[in-house]
Each structure stands twice: as C-alpha cells, then as structure tokens.
Specification:
alpha/beta, six-stranded mixed β-sheet, five-stranded antiparallel β-sheet, 48% helix
C-alpha cells in the first residue's frame, strides 16, 4: 500500500484513535508502524489476535499493563558496560513485575485463548532479578540503607556528623544571635554555614562560602565545624561511591538477563497492541470480519468509522460475487464520496487486523493494492488543471491494476466536456473491469446510468434523495441508478408549473422513459427493503419463541428427573428398612438354628435371595412400566411353579391354605403369602431332575481380606456379616479384616462381632507384619 492511498482514505486518523487506546509506549510504537497486510493468512492471524483480546474486553476485565516501560535502551546500555541510574533499574523491576501480572491474568481466565496463552508462555518471570533490584531501590527511586552493610554504616556516620555539626551551630545561634542576620542554619556548597552580619566577620571567624546580594550578610563556616564538615563530606563521597558500586552490580545483573528482558518487552508490546485494537473495535461497536482472497466484500449496516454514529447513515454493501463493479450515480451532496471512502477505509482496517464498524457476519477481501482517485487533485505547483491531475493519477492506477486490486473512482471523468467526460469514464471503467479488479465509481453523468444495464459484472447504485425535505437520506440503493430531481425540487421551491412543463417538453422521450423507470425501481427497492425488515423481525421473534420453548422444555425434563430421583430414594429407604427388619429376623432364627436342621450354606443362600430382592428403579422407565401387572385369579395347585413378586424370586406351591392364601417354598423358606403376591410361571414337571450340588472351595472368588476403611459403622458391619458367610462357603480357614485405627469404634465393632458369631473360632489384632491394630485376624471353624 502506498502512502498516498493511506492519506487519501484518512487511515492516519484511525492510527491516532488506535494509539490513544494503547496502555504503554511499547504499544504506541507498534501502532505507529502499522500498515495493512496483503497476505490472507497474516490478516486472519491479526483478526484472530484482535478477537481474542475482544473476548476479554467483553468480560469487562482490564489486562494489567500498568508499570510496564520501554526498557530496551537501558538494557542495551547495560550490556555495553553502562551503569544504569536508580530510575532505570526501577523501570526494569516494574516491567518484570508487570509481565508476570499479565501472565497470571491470562492463565486465570481459563478460556480458550490459544494466541494469548502462547504469548504469555514466552514471558519469563525473572523473580530473582526483580527481588535484587527492589531490595536495593525503593519505590521513589532512592537506594535504601539495606542495599549493603557498608552503605548502612556510611549513612549512619553521615547522620552522626550532621547531628554534631548542627549541635555546634545551634550553640552559635543561641549565644551569638546578635551577630547573625537570622538565627538559622543553612547550606552553601554542600557545607553547613551561618548567615553572619558583615561587621561581625572577624568575631565569628572561619570560611566565607557566599554573601547576600547587598553584601551585608556573609555565609560563614565557623572554624569549630570545619573539621566536622570535612568528615561529613568524606562520608558523602564514600556514600556516592558505594551507591555507584551497587548500581554497577545491578546493571551487570540486568545485562545478564538481556535475552529474557527483551523477549518479555516484545511480548508485552504485542499484547498491548492486540488489546488496543480490541478496545478501538469495542468503542466503534465494530465486528470481526471473515476474510477471503476472492475479492468478495459483504457488509451489513456499515458506517464510516471516522463519523459519529449520530451523524452517519449505515448502509449495506456487497461486491465481488454477482458483480465486480458498482457505479453510483446521482446529484452531488448525496453522500457518494462518503460511501466510497467508507468502503476503502474499512478494507484497509480489516487488512490491518482491526474490526470494522458493521454488523456481525460481515466479510472482507484481502487486496494486494487499493487505489483511489478522490477529491480535488488540482496541482498549482505542477501547473495542472483538475482534469489533468485526475487523469495523471488514473493513468498510474491503470498501469498497476489486476484481479487483486480494489479501485475507487470519485466523479470519474469530471472536469471536462460532459459528453467527452462520460465517454472517457465508460472506457476507463471497461478497461479496469476487464482486468477483473473490484471497482466502485461515483459520477453525476446521466449517460452512465445505462452503463450498468449494458455491461456484465456491473451494477448501478444511487443515494436516496427525499424530495419532500429536499435533503439526501444518504441511504445507498444497490441496483437503482440515481435520477434527476430538478423538476421536483423546483416545484417544491415554488417555480411556476408552466415553466416546469415547458422544461419537461425539452427533455427527450428516451430520457423521460429512463427517469420513469428509475423512479419505479426506487419505489420497488424501498418496498422490498421494508418487506425484508418486517420478515426479519418476524423471524427474530420466532427464534426467541423457539429458544424460550426449548428452555422451558429443558426445565421440565430437569424437574421430571428430580422427581424420579426423589421417588427412587424414597423406595430405597423403604427397601433398606425392610432389609434391616429381615436381617434382625434372620439373626434371631440363626440363634435357634440348633433346633432347625439347616446347613450354613442354606442360610447364606437365603440371605443372598434377600439381597437380590431389590427392584431396579430407573428414571428413564415410564410410569406405566413401573405399575405391577394385574394378576389373574386362576386357582394354583400344589407343585405349580410361581414367582413371589414381593422378593422377585421363583418357588413352588406346597398347598392351598384358604381362598386367598397359599403355602409356598422359595429357596429354603416356606412362607404363607397372599394370592395377589403370586404370579403363575408353569405347572409341576412330570419328571423332577435331581439337583446338582456345587462345592465352592478355596479357589472361590472371595478375597482373603476385607477392607472396611471409610465405611459407616452400620454399613461396615452388614458388609462384614455377608463377607463371613461368603468365606465360610468358600472354605477359608483364616481371613483379615482391615478396619484401620481411627477413633477405634469400627475396630471395637469388628471384635464384638467376632465374639458373637458361632462359626468364628478365634480373633486377634494383626502382628507388625500384618498391619498391627488396624487389622483383625479371624480364624474360622
């Protein structure tokens, strides 16, 4: 892009606005170097950088760039052996701190910001260098006493000498006040002195360092404090030398970190530059454009970025797909030039990584060159007329035009004979269009109104004019050429109708037909836009309604899921209560098992059947599916196979007790149940198969240890009881119960359980190699 185009389209003003958004001098330096890029991938990367910073801006968060300075010159000076002053050292420390703050800020965002995250990864914290500087220099740029032991000692001596000098001089002010012009102590040539009257010079004695303008007052250093002042000056020289040594040492540290410091500064400058672009976009209410290299531009409700939104009319612009050229016709003062500049400036902004003032969904093209012939080009120095200056510029443009070019012509062919100018304008447009460039031209020549209808890839456009108010509306009408409003304006201004009619008679028939056609097109265009806006509003309302329904449906599903869960929890509590009651009954029967001839594995089988009685509840099942099926009232006979619905187990009918009750056997249990709790499965088999006995030995899948750590007390004992049943069935002789130490409650519960259980022969705590008191070893019969 040549500098002239940037000046003509006022790109430099955009850079001024952008520079005001930068938080550091580093960012401002990058702004001053900004030029539109011409590579598609480079432009896309710039736009993505701006968009990432814009995402942070939309969260109303401010990136902490305060305290960051351009320390590059100081760092380079330290590398060549220069000694940095305290302010320069402090700037280095503050920049290190600022870089670390930026890095932490981006990391804490926890958003998908790959470019920003990649940048802050390159920032080196350099905490030790910052600590060394801050331990020597305070926030006011003064070297602190704590910078070194020697400096602390020297400054202590200075304070002592100053105190002694002041004490001696105070004695003079008190005892010889009549000899002094003022009873004060002052300083001349870095030495403490007294203002002595001229006539008492000999009485005081000492060294004269200065005198007043009148010569009546001498600033004298009495002999009594000369030696003390000398000692004080020596201490101050020593202080200066020690400070210089400290600063030299700090400068060497800074020189050693040159690579990291310069890298940090480069990254911080880029981040500031990114956020400056994002802030400008937010200020302009701009949007990120989609970029292409096909010469396609599409902007909806775009406006000129340098004109206040209160004073500018937004327009829809599209070029590069159905047509490659737009010819905007119509009278002057209609806003044609503003539209032309807006398209050119938005193109330059987009190629510079800046967002453009238009609605979301806009698309911009990347051009290798943007050319513009806009404004009064008259050159007095070169003795060229307006027309000659325009033609010189146009010749230069035509020499460089290709399919990667955007060309903007303002009042093409102006400044010469209208007929010749119009013909020349059409010929120039033909040449540029034939090279597949993107062209937008403005003209007030009526001959060019038909140009768009007679050429491929060319479309007419105009700026709307309100005849009622005699003012342009500045709305761009694509597809409608501009028409003359001279007769309507004259009539509104009060010109006699007879004069207007005679003027109309002078206009040719063809011209009248064209004007009538344009008027019809204008009306159709305005109506179509109105219809489109109404349809768009209807669509937006429909979208809002659909989103609201979807939101309510999700809330309904969530509520239904919660109700399912509540019902499942309620059923689980009921089952748990029933299970606990059944366990108590089994414990009582177990105590009586000597009277009943039942084996241990039969008890285990009964308990397993109780565990499996839990129904499967699911929120995904329909309520209809959860309803129990209505049982038929057919009579059952002894030997019939049935299903006991209350425990979800199969069994056999033993006998009918009465009309509504049956005695059934389920596993080892014989129970009396209601007819409604039974479901017929099949009749008694004629031939009964002999059951097979399964022996489960030491290889059964039960582990030889049980870990109860972290379990609630009641649940742990239930698990322990089931585990003992399983290991008895598996044939284990000894098992380990891991309960941990903790409060000791679970350990005591396990010990008491072992004492009560009839099949547990012995129990003890584990040895040192077995887990100590956190494990109980149980031996089984």
């Amino acid at each position: 892009m040549n500098e002239r185009i940037l000046q003509v389209l006022e790109f430099n003003k955009i850079l001024e606005y952008l520079s005001n958004q930068a938080a550091t001098s580093l960012g401002k330096d990058l702004v001053s170097l900004l030029k539109p890029a011409t590579g598609l991938q480079e432009v896309k990367t710039l736009q993505q950088e701006t968009d990432e910073a814009g995402q942070v801006e939309r969260l109303n968060l401010s990136i902490p760039l305060g305290g960051i300075s351009d320390i590059r010159a100081s760092v380079k000076r330290s590398v060549i052996g220069g000694i940095l002053n305290t302010s320069e050292c402090l700037d280095v420390a503050n920049t290190i701190y600022g870089g670390r703050q930026v890095k932490e800020f981006v990391i804490k965002l926890e958003k998908n910001l790959p470019i920003l995250e990649g940048l802050v990864e390159q920032i080196t914290p350099l905490r030790e260098l910052e600590r060394q500087i801050k331990s020597c220099i305070d926030d006011h740029g003064q070297v602190m006493d704590s910078a070194s032991v020697k400096l602390r000692s020297i400054r202590s001596s200075i304070r002592t000498y100053e105190s002694r000098v002041r004490d001696k001089l105070d004695n003079y002010t008190k005892s010889n006040s009549n000899m002094l012009s003022d009873a004060i102590i002052t300083i001349r040539n870095d030495r403490y002195v007294l203002p002595v009257k001229q006539e008492y010079r000999g009485a005081i004695g000492g060294i004269v360092h200065d005198q007043s303008a009148s010569g009546q007052t001498l600033f004298m250093e009495p002999k009594a404090v000369v030696d003390l002042n000398n000692q004080l000056q020596e201490a101050k020289v020593a202080e200066k030398q020690e400070i210089e040594r400290i600063l030299r040492e700090l400068s060497e540290y800074i020189a050693g970190a040159e690579t990291f410091l310069l890298e940090n500064v480069s990254v911080l400058a880029k981040i500031d530059f990114m956020f400056a672009r994002a802030k400008l976009g937010k200020q302009m209410k701009a949007a990120m454009p989609k970029m292409n290299d096909q010469g396609f531009i599409k902007m909806r409700q775009a406006h000129h970025p340098l004109i206040s939104t209160d004073n500018v009319v937004a327009n829809d612009i599209e070029i590069g797909k159905d047509y490659t050229s737009i010819v905007i016709t119509g009278p002057n003062t209609g806003g044609k030039t503003v539209t032309l500049k807006m398209i050119g400036l938005c193109t330059l902004m987009a190629q510079s990584g800046l967002q453009i003032p238009a609605y979301d969904g806009c698309e911009m093209a990347v051009f290798e060159n943007v050319f513009a012939d806009i404004g009064d080009e008259q050159s007095i120095e070169q003795n060229l007329s307006t027309f000659s200056s325009h033609m010189t510029n146009i010749v230069n443009i035509i020499e460089q035009v290709d399919n990667k070019t955007l060309v903007l012509f303002d009042e093409l062919g102006a400044g010469t004979d209208p007929q010749e100018g119009a013909a020349l304008a059409m010929s120039i447009l033909d040449e540029v269009v034939s090279r597949d460039a993107r062209v937008i031209a403005t003209t007030h020549y009526p001959e060019l109104k038909a140009y768009g209808y007679n050429r491929e890839n060319v479309i007419n456009a105009s700026v709307e004019f309100n005849v009622e108010t005699l003012q342009p509306t500045y709305r761009l009408l694509i597809g409608v050429p501009g028409r003359s409003n001279a007769f309507e304006i004259s009539k509104r201004l009060g010109l006699n109708d007879s004069i207007i009619e005679r003027a109309k008679d002078q206009v040719g028939v063809d011209s009248k037909s064209v004007e009538n056609m344009i008027a019809s097109l204008e009306r159709s265009q305005i109506q179509a836009e109105k219809d489109y806006e109404e349809a768009h509003q209807t669509l937006m309302k429909s979208e809002e309604l659909r989103n609201e329904i979807q939101k309510e449906w999700k809330q309904f599903e969530h509520k239904r899921e919660e109700l399912y869960k509540k019902a499942e929890k309620k059923a689980e509590k009921a089952l748990q209560k029933a299970r606990e009651e059944a366990e108590l009954i089994i414990d009582e029967i177990r105590g009586m098992k000597s009277a009943a001839d039942l084996k241990e594995h039969e008890w285990i089988e009964a308990k397993k059947m109780l565990e499996e009685a839990k129904p499967n509840l699911s929120s995904k099942q329909s309520t209809q599916a959860n309803k129990p099926k209505k049982q038929s009232k057919n009579v059952l006979h002894p030997g019939d196979e049935i299903k006991l619905l209350t425990v979800n187990q199969q069994g056999t009918v033993l006998e009918k007790v009465n009309e509504d009750e049956y005695l059934v056997q389920v596993g080892i249990m014989k129970v009396k149940v209601k007819r409604n709790d039974l479901q017929a499965v099949g009749k008694q088999k004629k031939t009964m198969e002999k059951p097979l006995t399964t022996v489960k030995g030491s290889n059964y899948h039960v582990r030889p240890e049980l870990d109860l750590r972290g379990e609630r007390y009641e649940e742990a004992l239930l698990r322990l009881e089931k585990y003992i049943d399983d290991v008895l069935l598996a044939g284990y002789a000894k098992v380990s119960i891991i309960h941990g130490k903790g409060t000791g409650a679970l350990r005591t519960g396990v010990q008491e359980f072992a004492k009560r259980h009839p099949r547990i022969k012995n129990s003890r705590y584990g040895s040192m190699g077995e887990g100590g008191s956190g494990v109980t070893i149980i031996e089984l019969q």
